[in-house]
Amino acid sequence: RIPTEQWAQVVEKTGGPVVYKKIPVQKPGPDEVLINIKYSGVCHTDLHAVNGDWPLATKLPLVGGHEGAGVVVARGELVKDVEIGDYGGVKWINGSCLNCSFCQQSDEPLCAQALLSGYTVDGTFQQYCIAKAAHMARIPKDCDLEAIAPVLCAGITVYKGLKESGVRPGQTVAIVGAGGGLGSLACQYAKAMGLDIIAIDGGAEKKEMTAKLGAGHYVDFQTSKNLVSDVKAATSDGLGPHAVILVAVNEKPFQQAAEYVRPRGTVVAIGLPAGAYLRAPVFESVIKMITIKGSYVGNRRDSAEAIEFFRRGLIKAPYKSCGLSELNKVYELMHEGKIAGRYVVDTSK
Ligand code: 8ID
Ligand code: ZN
């Protein structure tokens, strides 16, 4: 029943394009599962991988993708807690050693041996994908596989980032890049957490979308004459948001957030624009007692919690659908910043 060949999108050389072609189906190792990927979200990370613009090399040739939702079709002999037919998700952290000091303390993303789906191991832009069983996301049977796909990276990552910010119900969060993939999910998680949301992005389409997703305020970075004062003015007392979630793919906001975050507030860097630096004025950072930190995907528990928010119906983020064969088109739109929300590819087309 499992075919020997399958359709995949393959990065043959850094810089792209991706090539739609048939490749062999792999067999799972003893601690692995084989998942028939039905849908995969397309994350900006996948485009960074094609372009090779991060200081970390990808495998080549590479099958990208790390927001894959599907059905378990085979398992290795050591896998006891996953059944054939279960719904499974492939996330960015494909596997980790489970034994280093980070893994022992549930910081699996920090494991030096971590396998990265669609980067250091083949990912979800294929019909059959391997995952370490310990890290496979458990997807309940009542979840829609297409709608849940973006939760497997974007959702987990922003859910974790919001927790890392320490923001509490009733407080205000600024989401920078709110109209993109991570940003649209961040609006929904922030709304579910009872936060007041300032969405920051560009253009009318993203303004309208973020308002529907729960943002009470919108600051347009393309037209604002003074972004720092506009963001502060969006808070009731004019002192700025308690937390800033940076999910833009652009250096500028990483050098602005410290100026509008509230005293005692936290700036969380999540987006990974190539070659960029964080910057903050020392004087203001000190006398405002601000915190600036990074946040990187989530551990297995964060993943299960982010999925549970979705299962409970709290997360309804918009996505556009197309076939896996059309991935190059999605990358072009993403490069131009023209995607409001997420694209999800159907691996059968
Ligand atoms: O674990 C992590 N830290 C993690 C996990 C997943 C993804 C990090 N990422 C990284 C990706 O690699 C990428 O660098 O987060 C970044 C955002 O990924 P995405 O949400 O998949 O990208 P997108 O859909 O293209 O959205 C980016 C948004 O930023 C806006 C764009 O308009 C778009 O809506 N934006 C830009 I570009 N410049 C902006 C600016 N100056 C801006 N919004 C506000 N101000
Ligand atoms: Zn991602």
CATH superfamily of the largest domain: Medium-chain alcohol dehydrogenases, catalytic domain
Distance between the termini: 19 Å
Q: How many domain regions? A: 2
Question: Strand count, sense and closure of the main sheet?
Answer: 7 strands, mixed
Bound molecules: nicotinamide-8-iodo-adenine-dinucleotide, zinc ion
CATH topology descriptor of the largest domain: Quinone Oxidoreductase, Chain A, domain 1
Shape: globular
Mean of pLDDT: 97
Number of strands: 18
Helix and strand sequence: EEEHEEEEHEEEHHEHEHEHEHEHEHEHE
| Beta fraction | 25-35%
Mind telling me which CATH architecture of the largest domain this is? Alpha-Beta Complex
How would you summarize this macromolecular structure in one to three sentences?
This protein has 349 residues and is an alpha/beta fold. It contains eleven helices and 18 strands.
Plain-language structure description:
- The protein is α/β, with parallel strands linked by helices and 349 residues long.
- It folds into 2 domains: 5-153 and 298-346, Medium-chain alcohol dehydrogenases, catalytic domain (Quinone Oxidoreductase, Chain A, domain 1, Alpha-Beta Complex), CATH 3.90.180.10; 155-294, 3-Layer(aba) Sandwich (Rossmann fold).
- The chain is 25% helix and 26% strand.
- The chain has 11 helices and 18 strands.
- It has helices at residues 44-51, 101-104, 145-148, 154-165, 181-192, 204-213, 227-233, 257-260, 282-287, 300-311, 327-335, and strands spanning 5-11, 18-24, 32-42, 62-63, 68-75, 87-90, 93-95, 115-116, 128-132, 137-139, 172-176, 196-201, 217-220, 243-246, 266-269, 291-294, 319-323, 342-346.
- Strands 3, 5, 6, 9, 10, 17 and 18 form a 7-stranded mixed β-sheet that branches. Strands 13-12-11-14-15-16 form a 6-stranded parallel β-sheet, with helices on both faces. A 3-stranded antiparallel β-sheet has the order 2-1-4, with no helix packed on it.
- Helix 5 links the parallel strand 11 and strand 12 (196-201).
- Helix 4 (154-165) packs across helix 5 (181-192) and helix 4 (154-165) crosses helix 10.
- The chain is globular and about 60 Å long.
- The model has no long low-confidence stretch (mean pLDDT 97).
- The structure holds nicotinamide-8-iodo-adenine-dinucleotide (8ID) and zinc ion.
